[in-house]
Amino acid sequence: MCSRVEKQDDLDPLSRIEGLVSRFESDFTAAFLVLMGTIKSELVLSEIADLIEQGLLTQALEKVEQSIAKFSDVVVTAIAASGASTAEFLQSALKVVVSFDQTNENAVSAMRDTKLRIMQGLSTTQMQTIRETLIEGITNGDNPLQQARRFRDAIGLTPNQNKAVASYRRALESNSAAALNRALRDARFDRTVENALSSGDPLSAKQIDKMVNRYIERSVRHRAEVIARTEALAAAHKGNNLMYDQAIATGILERERLLRTWNRAKDDRVRDTHDGMQGQQRGFGVEFMSDAGVLLMYPGDENAPGKETIQCRCLVTTRLLPIGQVAGVTIL
Fold first, then answer.
1. Any idea what the Cα angle at residue 75 is, between residues 159 and 29, rounded to 5°?
2. Domain residues of the chain, as ranges?
3. 218-232 pLDDT per residue, tens
4. What is the pTM of this model?
5. C-alpha distance from residue 326 to each of 7, 49, 258 (Å)
6. Pick from 174, 178, 153: nearest CA to 163
7. Fewer CB within 10 Å, N side or C side of the chain?
8. d(C-alpha 283, C-alpha 299), whole Å
């Protein structure tokens, strides 16, 4: 039996979801950078060189895996925090005691799946980067210490980012103007590069290493921000949906009274396939449809292709319709 709602129209505010996404994004970015930095500080080049020489990289790779697992734990914790936030809203709106149950079967399954997805995705990407790095080192005839440096520098980067780093180093070493066209370069070094181009004198190894290291740092931060934005959006909406699902399952709320609305970001950077989704409405458990015909349960839906979710900034709000009124949209 559902408890009476005192107000005739209760809207789960957009600001609540925005606040969760913003908070999670900041937390995830910081966590990724700290964990990647910790790995690099713990991996001593001479030790990695010895392992490479012996063909034994298991110990070094285990440290990478452990850090990825810790990052996935941060995301799972955020899902629970989102569920708890939604419970607070429902308690205020319904005037009954509501709490998010992390031991709920659906919640446990959803958080476990999220953890596995992140671990598998990041691990696969990182292992590919490291593998390609080592192959390139062998091809170039690098000694174990040089390969160890490549190994450590590759941590936190995607294969494409790692290739960009190598290309940037080559541009600096060959005194090429192409080094000035990199979006992630540190522009504070531009004058030094320009002087080298003008004089024809090559940059020193120390100067190049300093510029490349800064390029790597900025690349890792960029990746951290992309991952954080995408995962923060998914975590906020997933926790939100899990709590609504629990409220329905326990009889606190009727599914038919939930009306969900898609809200696109209010600027010109919205992806084309989400531009026309503004105001699209669905009942609880019913997917939205992008302009490309892709179904999404919510912005950042992990089951949708990356081209529809990566760095998405759309949000979904939920309205609790008055008792006896049902959403005039498709209902499962």
1. 55
2. 10-253, 255-332
3. 999 999 999 999 999
4. 0.90
5. 16, 66, 8
6. 153
7. N
8. 15
